[in-house]
Amino acid sequence: MTETASIADRCRFQTARLSVEGWREALATGAGRAALAERMVDILTPDVTEMLPPKWQPLGSLDEALEWLDARAAEGDCFTVKTKDDDRIVGCLVAYAETAESDPALLDLRIGYLFAREAWGHGYASELIAGLVDWCEAAGDIRTLIGGVEEDNTASIRVLEKNGFRIVPEGAEPPMVVMERVLQPDT
Fold it and tell me: For a surface tag, which of 24, 33, 93, 160 has the fewest beta carbons within 10 Å of its beta carbon?
């Protein structure tokens, strides 16, 4: 599969309680970069990152956070997840777009998300993924959404299942499972 153009410029959506938008604008100014980095230091705590890959582990300083933001932005499209009532960043979403093998006019999106510890238990993850699915269906050029989840992360597995994702048999080696939501089946 080959990588395709960024979706960050066109992917922006709201749900009942959340607002999702690319963080490219925030990174364009010194003040925006610093504010986003400070918030990510607060969000990426050991309990939040426990089941995430090494590159997503806690950040100990503002400099580490700035490097982390740049690295994530270089890998794919990154989005802030904010609460609509107070415009506070409570999480982030990442999406890596690849051209679908079955149809070069379509994209497969590999996704990941996380929420600050204080945002857990409020249904935000389910709401975020439902909003993303709705946006992808409306976009019309997304074939599948694909997420990797550690098999012990039952909360994330439930969130994805609730939103129509299914485990891909033999999609990954334990302790990971791959889950996908097919939006446009191969014909």
Answer: 24
Distance, CA of 181 to CA of 135 (rounded, Å) = 13
Measured CA to CA, the distance from residue 169 to residue 69 in angstroms comes to 33
Phi, psi of 105 (to 5 degrees): -85, -10
> Could you read off the pLDDT of 127-169 as tens digits, one per residue?
999 999 999 999 999 999 999 999 999 999 999 999 999 999 8
Q: Other CB atoms closer than 10 Å to residue 79's CB: what's the count?
A: 25
Q: Which residue from 107, 149, 150 is spatially nearest to 7, judged by alpha carbons?
A: 107
Give me the mean pLDDT over the 41-60 stretch: 85
Tokens of 151: 């098999």
What are the extents of the domains in the chain? 13-182
Q: Classify domain 13-182 by CATH number.
A: 3.40.630.30
Q: The whole model's pTM is what?
A: 0.92
Q: Which residue has the higher pLDDT, 171 or 86?
A: 86
